[in-house]
Amino acid sequence: MSFPVDRPRRLRRTEKLRSLVRERRLSITGLVYPMFVCPGKKVRHEVSSMPGVFQQSADQILEECREVESLGIPGVILFGLPESKDPQGKSSLAADGVVQRAIEGIKKAKLDLLVITDVCLCEYTDHGHCGVLENGEIVNDATIEILSEQALSHARAGADIVAPSDMMDGRVGAIRTKLDKHKFENVPIMAYSAKYCSGFYGPFREAAHSAPQFGDRRSYQMDPANAHEALREVALDLEEGADIVMVKPALAYLDIIRMVRDRFNVPVAAYNVSGEYSMVKAAARNNWIDEKRVVLEILTGIQRAGAEIVLTYHAKDVARWLKA
Ligand SMILES: [Zn+2]
Q: How much distance in Å is there from the Cα of 119 to the middle of ligand 1?
């Protein structure tokens, strides 16, 4: 017995009915807003490929953080554009580095905001790779030493969560050990566990000045064709002490988000990356799509796939739309 008794359209007739039976309600409680910190004062430079996203000095970051807080968004993630770059990305460790100073500013202002920091070397190395080089190769174990020092310096500055994005093997364990040794056992690690080697990162490289100067990142980021490997990466990060695992990018990897959500009992984050943002912005500027409708649909899709936490450049817009 199906039609004419079963009529799914009965529940779609009015917005009241649709709303009553809606399976998922988009909320901003899991959103994280990414921000780019640069040196200087009163610097606010829009990233041309990412309208509405700025490279900003710490004072301006603080101003925008006030806005983010007032919109009810729970957290931000900071990326640093340092004053100087070198082969080892040493400026990422400085107590007065761009990210460290931005964290301190936000914490001093006592904003009700989680401050998450991206932990990686690509913004700080002159060659733009996420690790240090030896004979033209990105070497793993020397890199995780520096990364764990960087995570420690972020924790010292007041970071609430550290988020390693480099995809080196063993870095979560190295960071956990380093943090614990210095009494930061309560600082959680959000691991970029399944980070794919993706063309969707294009605009970010302009935003973070982090394009590799030679070669690509295929020797450490994951092959887009692989799903089982993502589960292995997540399992390893959890064994090493990750508290939250992330899938990045989001839209071409919704199946991975769902697989991770179904197999592991930890919070799952997804990064709605720069290219995903820029495509929406570009199409909206041409009036080819309805921006608000498309953004809400995308974020609903990412949450429906299983991500409790979504890092997205759309966070402020979404907060405004959901408030209205
Ligand atoms: Zn990197």
A: 8
- The catalytic site residues sit at 195, 248
**20 burial class (0-12, 13-18, 19+ CB within 10 angstroms)?**
exposed
Please give the distance, rounded to the nearest whole angstrom, from the Cα atom of residue 140 to the centre of ligand 1.
13
| Cβ neighbour number for residue 134 with a 10 Å cutoff | 9
Contact at 8 Å (CB) between 124 and 147? no
Alpha carbon distance 324, 318 (integer Å): 10
At 8-61, the pLDDT tens digits run: 999 999 999 999 999 999 999 999 999 999 999 999 999 999 999 999 999 999
* Per-residue pLDDT reduced to its tens digit, 181-206: 999 999 999 999 999 999 999 998 88
What ranges make up the beta strands (E) of the chain?
31-37, 44-46, 54-56, 75-80, 114-119, 132-134, 137-139, 161-164, 190-195, 244-248, 268-272, 309-312
Q: Is the pTM of this model over 0.85?
A: yes
Ligand 1 centre and the CA of 184: distance in Å? 23
Q: Could you give the CA distance from residue 128 to residue 216 in angstroms, rounded to a whole number?
A: 10
Q: Is the confidence at residue 324, as pLDDT, over 90?
A: no
Structure letter (DSSP) for residue 58: H
Contact 166, 143 (CB under 8 A): yes
